[in-house]
Amino acid sequence: MFQSFEDLSDPSCGAPHAALLRAELGRLGLDGFLIPRADAHQGEYVPPHDCRLQWLTGFTGSAGVAAVLDDQAAIFVDGRYTIQVREQVDMAVFPAAHLITDPVTAWLASRLKPGQKLGVDAMLHTVREVRRLRKVCETAGAELVTLDENPIDAIWIDRPEPPLGKVKLYPLELAGKASEGKIAEIQAALSEKKADACVLTQPDSIAWLLNIRGSDVTHTPLPLSFATVPSTGKPSLYIDSRKLSNSVRDALSELTDLAEPGEFMEGLKALGRDGASVMIDPSLAGIGIADAISDAGGSLIEAQDPVLLPKAVKNDVELKGAREAHIRDAAAYIKFLCWFDEEAPKGELDEIGVAEKLEEFRRDTGVLKDISFDTISGAGPNGAICHYRVSHSSNLKIPMGKPFLIDSGAQFEDGTTDITRTLAVGDVTADMKRHYTLVLKGHIAISTARFPEGTTGAQLDTLARIDLWQAGLDFDHGTGHGVGAYLSVHEGPQRIAKTGTAPLKPGMILSNEPGYYPAGEYGIRIENLEIVTEARDIAGGERPMLGFETITLVPMDLRLVDVTLLTDKERSWLNRYHDRVRGEIGPLVGAKERIWLEQATKTI
What we know:
Layout: H1 14-28, E1 32-36, H2 52-57, E2 65-69, E3 73-77, H3 82-88, E4 96-98, H4 104-109, E5 117-121, H5 127-140, E6 143-147, H6 151-155, E7 168-169, H7 172-175, H8 179-192, E8 197-200, H9 203-210, E9 212-213, E10 226-230, E11 236-238, H10 246-255, E12 257-259, H11 264-273, E13 277-280, H12 287-295, E14 299-302, H13 308-312, H14 316-343, H15 351-363, E15 370-371, E16 376-379, E17 402-408, E18 410-412, E19 415-416, E20 419-425, H16 430-447, H17 457-470, E21 480-482, E22 491-496, E23 509-512, E24 515-516, E25 524-525, E26 528-536, E27 545-550, H18 568-585, H19 591-600
Parallel strand pairs: 1-5, 3-4, 5-6, 8-13, 11-12, 13-14
Antiparallel strand pairs: 1-2, 2-3, 7-9, 8-10, 10-11, 15-18, 16-17, 17-20, 18-19, 21-22, 23-26, 24-25, 26-27
GO molecular function: aminopeptidase activity
Keywords: Aminopeptidase, Hydrolase, Metal-binding, Protease
Organism: Roseibium porphyridii
């Protein structure tokens, strides 16, 4: 199994670990400390070695920060985790607040006292974050202290070792573009910005640029590393040499100057001493990186990581791989759905068993490299927890008469998949069907959207919500995220969300996943992946418009659809989609599954 169902959270750790931290802060002369859910790469996926927020509080979500002062503390999470945080964290020690509407900066502003010193790890807080924190501290008459060593590391007795996943070369027939061409493209971008070099902190940016993959973090083929790319000459790659076989080392030596991670800060200082103008992404680079360059005499150019956009706009080979991966995944998924419909009415299935069976069907393809994230297998009230992670202690039997939510994905060498389906188990109520259909209407609105060049995800986000809003409902997460090419299942800069400011471009892959989650009852989410298509003319229109190509080919559950709430166009879309699923995936499954599929995709 790629997924573990161990109980990773322990709320009882909060009080003793907070006491240990406060004692260590006192020894360092600090009055407070911030603990983000982050590592030095500022990525979403953090190895156990760097899960300091989890160690301190018990919280296992993918975004959050804790603040510890000498007399009080709090934990801040976003809307995906408002239920989960209360189950995993001792609220008496770390009261929960909303990361967006009640941010840590506001909490600190009302509590910091003149003369106090607030510490932060210089590699775990970005340039942009530190600016906000410094302003808060200055207003309060306090001081922000950036630390080279994290005080938690001194008290974390059983801290795991850093990962040493082996690095593999990603073949050109899957990457679609040689590393030399990618490096040249980035160097041209640096020259346009009059930058002598840039710093890359995101492992997926480095993996894409150098056509390598690794296994340092769960479910995502990332080799943790740093890199600097000069405007001319070889990039420098800072990576633990124990991850490299002789053949990989030889290949990377042709492209880069290899160095150990411990040499990274000295490399930055050397750029500074040379008086280089160095591009950093202030939303991704730790303040320690910026300080190392500027303190040594270099100048900083703040700009978006130059790899993000080229990586997000997939080339033809990457798009071909994505389509093929989704067809393969759909066949496995339809086998799973057929099995589920046969077994669920017996009343014996539970969340873990379902997640295990879905992984088994994917493994049966013979080419599954990993799942792309821990499967969200949510029965009843657990389905209302947006990013629920099932464990042995939380595992529920799947009840009759309620929707069951399952959000999962696969890592194949030719593509990364991510799909959510909400399934009826037994007879469901009219309200459940209404909620599902309102979500479906939002999903269809995104899938059928046509929009001009320059449109951002924020402009499209409302389409997914408008029918829910008119019913007085909403969901507290973005509508869609970018997806990588055998890389991260969550990829920027593109997203469909209120905060999605990046223009959508042809070749980008995004999820389309509106939802609705009545707390304590059930969850509904419908997710397909979409490719942004080239602008095309519309009959009678004045300008060509971009659109979406759906590449996820798995039936929606018609037992949850209230057809009376669909417009003729929406019903037509659903029928066409199901015709396509039946036509493209039907020949790839067995006779039993084809019979099931005929019924699951019947015309409505």
